[in-house]
Amino acid sequence: MGMLRIMSRRGDDTVMWDSTRVAMGDEEAIAAVHEAERIFEQQRSRGATAFSVGTGQTPVRLEQFDSAAEQIILLPKVVGG
Amino acid sequence: MGVGSAALVLVLVVVLLSMLTLARLIAITVNEVRTGLPSGGEWAECAGDTPHARAEELLRAVLDEQEYQQVRKRGYVDVVSPSNAQRVYRIPRFLGRVCVYEGGQVVRELCIQPVEAIPSADVVAMHKLMIQGDEEHYLAEANQFSPLIPGRRYQP
Questions:
Q1: Which among A53, A59, A80 has the least Cβ separation from residue B111?
Q2: A60 in a structural domain
Q3: Which of A48, A57, B78, B127 is the most exposed place for a label (fewest CB within 10 A)?
């Protein structure tokens, strides 16, 4: 399963997709990936930063959506306080 | 040293100790108000599907078990710099700046925040992800300050 988590005042919103079903051409799974990618691009255009997070792995900053990522976390734009 | 100078030093020491005690009391009070628990207690997770509960779940996924226990019991989590093994970032669970220790001594404090209000658990996760995933960007964005208490030693 792939997962996109978007931090917000509501906690985090989540979009999930089944990578195996995506590979098999399942329309519903593909639609979920497209929705995740759309949200990713929308949030990035607003200044969000994305990190790919895998179990036991160091986070990696993402510039582009990666449907193969185990988990993508989108942080809101940050500024010095 | 004359009697006057000694008295002045004594007064300064008393004032400093009083300020440190007051700061400690304020920190304990803030912790108790925020956690609803006596000092030394652990932060209680929010039950149910609330923003804070979801943020807590995300924080738990981002931290390893040792880090998660540290943040629950001590109110901060330490993250070692990926570029400098001698540098440690101490991220507070709630309010406060991130303290940067190098070679076992605090060297500066950082302030960086999201433009959108998010639950405090998400803020902790945000610091950890940015430090580990893009430290250079993190340091470039953060405002940097001299440490509030210069020379403070790192204590795990």
A1: A80
A2: yes
A3: A57
User: CA neighbours within 13 Å on the CB side: how many for B148?
Assistant: 9
pLDDT tens string, chain B, 156 residues long: the values are: 577 777 788 888 777 777 766 665 555 444 444 433 334 444 444 445 899 999 999 999 999 999 999 999 999 999 999 999 999 999 999 989 999 999 999 999 999 999 999 999 999 999 999 999 999 999 999 999 999 888 889 988
**Residue B136: closest CA among chain A residues belongs to which residue?**
A61
Domain count, chain A: 1
Residue A50 resides in a domain: yes
Cβ–Cβ gap B116/A9 under 8 Å: yes
Give start and end residues of each alpha helix (H) in chain A.
19-23, 27-45
SS3 content of chain B, % helix, strand, coil (to 5): 50, 20, 30
For chain A, say whether B66 makes contact (Cβ under 8 Å).
Answer: no
Q: Does A9 fall in a domain? A: yes
Query: B46 and chain A: CB distance < 8 Å anywhere?
Result: no
Distance, in Å, from the CA atom of A46 to the CA atom of A44, rounded to the nearest integer, reads 5
The verdict on residue A80 lying in a domain is: no
Determine the structural domain holding residue A60 and report its residue range.
Answer: 2-75
Q: In this complex, which of B51, B62, B115 lies closest to A53 when CB atoms are compared?
A: B62
